[in-house]
Design brief:
Two copies of one chain form a homodimer.
Chain A (H helix, E strand, L loop, with lengths): L21 E13 L3 E8 L2 E8 L14 E10 L7 E10 L20 H6 L1 H4 L3 H23 L3 E2 L5 E2 L11 E4 L2 E5 L4 H11 L1 E9 L12 E10 L4 H22 L1 H6 L13 E3 H8 L10 H15 L3 E5 L22 E6 L2 E9 L3 H10 L8 H8 L5 E7 H8 L21
Parallel strand pairs in A: 6-10, 12-13
Antiparallel strand pairs in A: 1-2, 1-4, 2-3, 4-5, 7-9, 8-9, 10-11, 11-16, 13-14, 14-15, 15-16
């Protein structure tokens, strides 16, 4: 099936084809429109859509291939102001590269997908073909590129750490047990311990990878498996250095979306986030007052996050707001306390358009502080021996953060449910496709 | 602990410091050398090493900090032809950023690490700090960058697919079972099904992520969890298009190592691979003859791969050799047969310096062919319903490959054991650190 000349032209390149020359398109039949005297095939490939005009006498005995069939088309490029890119293809020779396709579970050619979420998810391998769906993931993919490019430029080293671990990272709850050669292992809830340990090696590290939370609640913002964008780096003064780095990273991600996924931005009518040069910060205790919550409330409720998000947009024109100083008793043992008042912590959550997107902060870095913190929580330092070894052997003051990819994209496109921006979501009810 | 002026100078930047000016270094004490009248502290940071000279009268009551302690040093940059980069720091004010460090399990300052593999692995968070160890991962990290940059430039979309799956991908063997909310799930052995399905969406996709093999054998080339570099793309003629893309990718990875990890290449005295413009190809049946194996042998043994690797280097000056046409009965059901002789397949293994590094090839793309292939193997197409849906709805001819990151780096540096190039290896015996 080696294609003879001409070689393939992508749909987006068709606009540059010389009218009158022979071109070859390859792709899915996105739309078949059969009129009395003339028919149209809209061909979809990775670059976009192209229009092919078929006269009635050019249609063979089998008729025109149905939608989603994969075809090879050789025809003549012709100017037409109404075609995408101003060029369409006429006098086509249509070759099927596969069987005529079965009718898709949803009409992929309609500009808007009206199917409900369960239909979209149950048929994900096919429904992601819809241009509006595909655009969502193109936002995600550009975000990943921007994340890495920003950190590479800042002297970070990419790491890849194990997802099979001997004990729970963050807490005993919400871990998936694995039968590991007859022993019990767990799926990592985060690369937290590893990224910290590797700050001792590379000083600045990041990782993009899956994390696993056996989250029993079925909410619009939780997944059992999601992509975590983890950053950790040494030689900081406190969590404000971490927040500054987070700002640089979010800006780099936003710029990459604008640069590399411009069409997706347009298609989704996406409003790119406004991130000020300095991210506004509010202390947790002040945030409680602002939302009218009792002063001893240990956490912010989703409704509180929404109020604070609105306030940040109104007050600072900012889509992001950092809430610093979360109570130590609600933060993991490795959290660095706020030096002048150790009820509070040198950590923050970043609220993005009313939803918690990032958790970050400064960590403890002295061995003695770890032993003390674990003991105070009634935990045995011996249970963390391997981890603590790193600190006994010298670790710089450090901190970091983790961004949930799906939450980022979800809030960017203001999707009501995080599953809409996840290729193949996993939750308490869903393990397929 | 906000550092006052001067701001930090990285070790590698010290060479540009104006002699006589004040500079600030921050890092681990890599080496402490105490002589009668003068002592030296070698400071290690993410960029390299710097030398600090301490006169006897500059040492406080606590003495000089032991190796691996993290310090902040302010002193005067001074020319010294014998110091790294031609500049050292004198008249230092040394501030400890943590407690004096405990003695490391291995002497990290020695040019060569002489400890055995178990010691290295048991103490990985600390032993990776050794410059020669660190260099190994810098090769890996540069490889990942080169992999992605090459594919981004070729119009590929990065994907992230679930690692929790409802059934085994490749075969029923060697899967890790997971307790998934009371149901049984498995850890994905590869993203094979997902990457194929997403070829229907994005046409060209890649993924970097963990894969899991419950490999019960303790060998120098197997891991229970490793990083798979997966590629899949549509509109190919046959597996030779896949092999050409693989060549482009391997060349991009090699170039990235040369560009971004030059110092690591030098430190490890690494010979970068020689990859010809066209990768030499030998048919499986011919390979059997060449290694003197029986004609009905279904696979190549490690010894055969070594012989073939040597032959390719001798014959073609190539570090890589593709063996195409592996017997269909030993390949997974989605493998495309060799059109002129269906005992053989349109698939290949790539041997890199005598070790299988990559498996790739053309896949079936017609729904009918899948039903037939599964039925012929005594499997029920119904069991693959979700996967097969993609093909019923139209899929282009396609293929792809998967590179094991650790095998790539292992053969690059000619490590006798793959665990040496894995940050935190997992195998039948090892689940920590």
């Amino acid at each position: 099936m080696k294609p003879p000349v001409p070689s393939r032209t992508l749909a987006a390149e068709l606009t540059h084809a010389e009218p009158g020359t022979e071109v070859r398109l390859q792709g899915h039949v996105h739309r078949r429109r059969e009129l009395a005297t003339v028919s149209f095939l809209i061909i979809r490939d990775r670059s976009g859509l192209a229009q092919v005009v078929v006269r009635a006498d050019e249609i063979g005995d089998d008729g025109l291939p149905p939608e989603e069939t994969v075809v090879d088309i050789v025809g003549i490029a012709t100017a037409n102001a109404h075609a995408p890119g101003g060029i369409e293809v006429v006098s086509p020779v249509v070759t099927l590269l596969t069987e005529p396709a079965a009718t898709p579970p949803v009409e992929l050619w309609r500009p808007a997908l009206t199917a409900g979420l369960p239909t979209l998810l149950d048929n994900a391998p096919v429904t992601w073909r819809h241009p509006a769906q595909r655009a969502k993931w193109q936002i995600a993919s550009a975000s990943l590129q921007g994340f890495r490019a920003t950190l590479d430029a800042a002297g970070f080293t990419e790491i890849q750490t194990p997802k099979l671990v001997a004990s729970a990272t963050e807490s005993g709850a919400n871990v998936f047990p694995v039968d590991y050669f007859g022993r019990q292992a767990f799926l990592a809830q985060s690369p937290q311990f590893y990224k910290q340990q590797l700050v001792g090696v590379f000083e600045r590290v990041y990782e993009v990878g899956p994390v696993f939370r056996a989250e029993p609640h079925d909410t619009v913002r939780h997944l059992a498996e999601y992509v975590s964008l983890d950053v950790e780096f040494g030689f900081i003064s406190d969590h404000h250095d971490v927040l500054r780095m987070l700002r640089t990273v979010l800006t780099g991600m936003t710029d990459a979306i604008a640069m590399q996924a411009g069409e997706a931005v347009e298609l989704l009518q996406l409003r790119l986030p406004s991130i000020p040069d300095e991210i506004p910060v509010i202390h947790f205790s002040e945030a409680l007052t602002r939302v009218g919550a009792p002063a001893d409330e240990p956490d912010l409720a989703p409704e509180h996050e929404r109020i604070l998000g609105d306030w940040a947009l109104r007050e600072f024109g900012s889509d992001v707001l950092a809430v610093e100083g979360y109570p130590m008793r609600k933060r993991p043992f490795y959290t660095h306390p706020q030096p002048d008042d150790t009820r509070w912590s040198n950590s923050f959550d970043l609220i993005f358009r009313g939803l918690e997107l990032v958790t970050g902060g400064q960590r403890l870095h002295r061995y003695g502080d770890y032993v003390e913190a674990l003991t105070a929580r009634g935990e045995s330092p011996a249970a963390y021996e391997g981890y603590l070894q790193t600190f006994a052997h010298g670790m710089p003051p450090h901190g970091g953060f983790a961004i949930g990819l799906e939450r980022w994209v979800g809030r960017l496109i203001e999707a009501p449910n995080i599953r809409e921006v996840t290729l193949f979501p996993r939750d308490v009810h869903r393990l397929t496709p």
